[in-house]
Amino acid sequence: MSKHVIYSRNANHTALSLQQLTTLAPAAFSNSKADRLTDRYVSLNTADMLPVLADYGYAPVQAAQKRSRVAGAATHAAHMIAFAKPNELFDNTDTIRPEIILYNSHDGTGAVKLFAGCFRFICSNGIVAGEGFSSRVYHSKALTGFEEVLRGTVKTIPSLMQRIDRLRGITLSIDDAFDVAERSVATRWDFYNQQTKGVYATETTVGNVLKIHRNEDKGMDAFTVFNRIQEGVVRGNAMVKSLNERHPHGIMRKARNISSIKEHVRINSQLWDIIEEYAA
Predict the structure, then answer these.
(1) Taking every pair of C-alpha atoms in the chain, what is the biggest distance, in angstroms?
(2) Which of 271, 176, 171 is nearest to 230 (CA)?
(3) Cα separation of 194 and 249, whole Å?
(4) What are 58-74's pLDDT values in tens digits?
(5) How far apart are CA 64 and CA 238, in angstroms?
(6) Which of 29, 176, 266, 274 has a CB 3.0–4.6 Å from the CB of 172, allowing a cystine?
C-alpha cells in the first residue's frame, strides 16, 4: 500500500470515501479466498460487515493492509480498518474520539477480530485497547455472529472512556514512568546484552520514548505518559542500537515506524495492558 498504517487517515479526521477504502485496503472487498484453501473454508468478508457497522453509526476513518511480495496474495491479505462516529468526541481537552478497530483477512490465517479503541487528535495516536476490550468471531456465512460481537464491543466503549479518565487521575513518579516505559519498549525490542547482530533497545531508547514533543504532553498523569510512550514505540521516535557486519560494536540510529499491521495491533494492545496493569 502507498500509505503507512499510521498515516492512513484523512488529515481532517473525516470518514474515508469508498474509493479511498478500496485503495488503502483492497482485500476488504475480496469475494474470494486464497487458492490453497479448500471448499470447506467459508470467508466472512469485510465488505459485508461495512453496512452492519454503518447501521450502528460507524464510518471507516482509517484503513491499511499488509504488504505482500507474492503475486495475488494482496487480494486476501490481512487488513485493518478503524471505524468511528465522525462527530462523537469524548472530551474537549486534547480531543479523543472512540473507535472500533476491525482486523480481518481472507487467507485462512485467523478469525475476525474487533477491538475497542480511541484516537487522540493532538498527536494522531490511535489507541487499541487490550484485555477485556477485544473479541473475535470465526469465519462463517452468517453475519449474525459478527453483529453480536459488534454489539458487545460497542457496549465496552463507555467503560474504556471511564478507564481513560481514571488514568488521567493517576500521577506517576519519574521512576514509575521509567518502569512503564521499559516494559513498553520490551514489547517491540529485546534489550542489548552483548549480542553481535540485530537491533536492540537500551536505556537511551527508554528515555527517548518518554521524551515530551508538545506542550499537551507535559503532564505526568498515567494517560499522558502512556501516550508519549505509545507514540515513541509505535512511530519509532527513539534511538536503538543496531549491530551488523559493518558495525559489529553497534551504532545508535533512529528506529523505524512499525509497518506491519499485525505488529501495530499487537503492540498497541499490549501497551494498553501494561498501563492498565500498572494503574491497577
Answers:
(1) 57
(2) 271
(3) 9
(4) 999 999 887 765 545 56
(5) 24
(6) 176
Could you give the strand order of the β-sheet that contains 198-200, starting from the edge strand earlier in sequence?
198-200, 239-243, 251-254
CA distances (Å), origin 113, targets 37, 41, 106, 212: 20, 17, 13, 33
How far apart CA 256 and CA 264 sit, in angstroms, is 13
- Its pTM stands at 0.81
Instruction: Return all residues near 174 (Cβ < 8 A) that are at least 6 apart.
Output: none
Give me the residue label for grid cell 490511535: 126
Burial 83-92 (b: 16+ CB within 10 A, else e): bbbeeeebee
Q: Residue range 85-101: average pLDDT?
A: 73
Query: What is the C-alpha to C-alpha distance for residues 258 and 229, in angstroms, rounded to an integer?
Result: 14
Q: DSSP alpha helices (H): ranges in the chain?
A: 18-24, 46-55, 144-168, 174-185, 203-209, 222-235, 261-279
Instruction: Record the cell numbers describing residue 280, joined without a space.
Output: 491497577
Contact 74, 27 (CB under 8 A): yes
Residue 13, all three cell numbers:
479526521
Rounded to 5 degrees, φ, ψ at 254 are -75, 135
Query: In this predicted model, what pLDDT tens digit does every residue of 147-177 receive, in sequence order?
Result: 888 999 999 999 988 888 999 999 999 999 9
Report pLDDT digits (tens) over 98-147. Answer: 899 998 887 666 778 888 888 876 555 676 766 656 676 765 556 678 88
Measured CA distances, 237 to 25, 143, 233 (Å): 26, 40, 7
Contact 100, 83 (CB under 8 A): yes
Q: Spell out the residues 6+ positions from residue 75 whose beta carbon is closer than 8 angstroms to its own.
A: 26, 27, 30, 32, 106
d(CA 137, CA 157): 18
